[in-house]
Amino acid sequence: MNIQIQNLYHKAQKDQRLIIGLMSGTSMDGLDIALCVVKGSGPETDINILEFKTGEYSDDFRAKIKAIFSKKQVDLELVCLMNEHIANTHAELINQALKEWGYTNDQIDFIASHGQTIFHAPKSLHQLVDYPNGTLQIGDGDHIAVKTGIITLSDFRQKHLAAGGEGAPLAVYGDYLIFSKWGEDRVMLNIGGIANFTYLPGNLNASEIFSTDVGPGNTLMDQFMQHYYNQFYDNNGAVAKSGKLNEALLKELLKCDFFELDFPKTTGPELFNLDYLQAAQKQSSTLDLATEEVMTTLCHFSAETISNAVKRCFGNEPNAQIFMSGGGMHNPLLVELLREKLPHCNFFTTDDLNINPDAKEAVLFAVLANETICGSPINFGDRKGVPSICMGKISLPE
After folding, report:
1. Pairing of strands 210-216, 151-154
2. Tens-digit pLDDT profile for residues 295-350
3. Shortest CA distance to 270 belongs to which of 65, 373, 88, 119?
4. Arithmetic mean of pLDDT, 88-94
5. pLDDT at residue 166 is higher than 90
6. DSSP secondary structure string for all residues of 130-183
7. 211 forms bridges with which residues in the sheet?
8. Which of these ranges, 23-32, 74-83, 96-105, has the smallest mean pLDDT?
9. Could you give the C-alpha distances from 46 to 28, 150, 391, in angstroms and in order?
10. Which of 97, 157, 191, 243 pairs as cysteine with 292 (C-beta 3.0–4.6 A)?
């Protein structure tokens, strides 16, 4: 037997494993690196975060990603080169983090790498009859494995597509294993670039779970801040809080076929981008609107689409336990608006469940890797968009 396969088998038999989860999202502010200790698998999964940091990207590196991100027409040579360059950069950030934390690479059992999404194309977006759902994440797992000497699992979303899903959201798999609680219905709301939530029934019946994207979380606000303010995001919602809501623009922003689609569904900045905003401003005669008022309206737009989705799923006066994660939970205005629009819901963060909300997505990929190595597919029944599968391609260091 190949010594690498023997090593993999040995690690799979351990009582607990050290797994690094990685996430690089649409904000492109850096690489989230979560070092986790994982015991068990399936419903018996027990995971704790030992260390967490966000490895910063240089301005030059971020610009190169943006050059190929969420665009139909790009430099194909740059896409090819960035597949390797992103992986090498991520490997360097991992090696630096381990050194900073006082760990040697051979102490780590696995890396779970999401990669960098550069395009997400569900059928609802591309509407091409002869083509399936598509998504593309780059940052090759082999390069990370070789540069770190650690077995790496990557490219998780392709299996989801192959099994009939849209490649997103994948949070449902980890949410079910980490956050389900007998006797309490929970909504796990992640406000990243795109907002999504997972419903976890208190009866723990996996066949009743569902997960869906609901619309823009931070992506439009972040894009607007980067373009007009040269800031990655609206820190503490300061700009949005300084303006006033423009009802005409909000009404136009809400006129999108995506919001009428049945759940579950997925979307991305391929749809919700500055071109989308400009078209809405043109239709609402608000092209001359002050930038702070645009930001206020975009914040209301995110809150409106999230709250509308919750009401659509759970009734007009939902009484849900909502646990937030993602960058949007740090925007006071957005959270205030959600509380106003969902007055009967109780709002928490995943910190209340002992998982750092900023690390949650990276942790979820560590869980997915653990299931592929040590677990088995969870039976979600015939739930649309939630195939019963394990995900992640395995890359060996040698």
Report:
1. unpaired
2. 999 999 999 999 999 999 988 888 889 999 999 999 999 999 999 999 999 999 99
3. 119
4. 98
5. yes
6. T---EEEEES-HHHHHHHHTSEEEE-THHHHHHTTS-S---HHHHHHHHH-BTT
7. 198
8. 23-32
9. 29, 22, 19
10. 243
Q: How is the beta sheet containing 186-191 ordered, strand by strand?
A: 210-216, 194-200, 186-191, 321-325, 346-349
Nearest to 113 by CA among 48, 23, 203: 23
Q: Where does 243-273 have alpha helices with state H?
A: 247-253
Residues in the chain: 398
pLDDT at 75: 97
The closest alpha carbon to 8, from 394, 393, 266, belongs to 394
Q: How far apart are CA 368 and CA 111, in angstroms?
A: 11
What are the structure tokens assigned to 172, written together?
């449902």
Minimal CA–CA distance to 84: which of 147, 149, 138, 28? 138
Give me 26's structure tokens. Answer: 């649409």
Q: Please, are residues 118 and 64 in contact by the beta-carbon 8 Å criterion?
A: no
Q: Which residues of 372-392 are buried (b: 16+ CB within 10 A; e: fewer)?
A: bbbbeebebeebebbbbbbbb
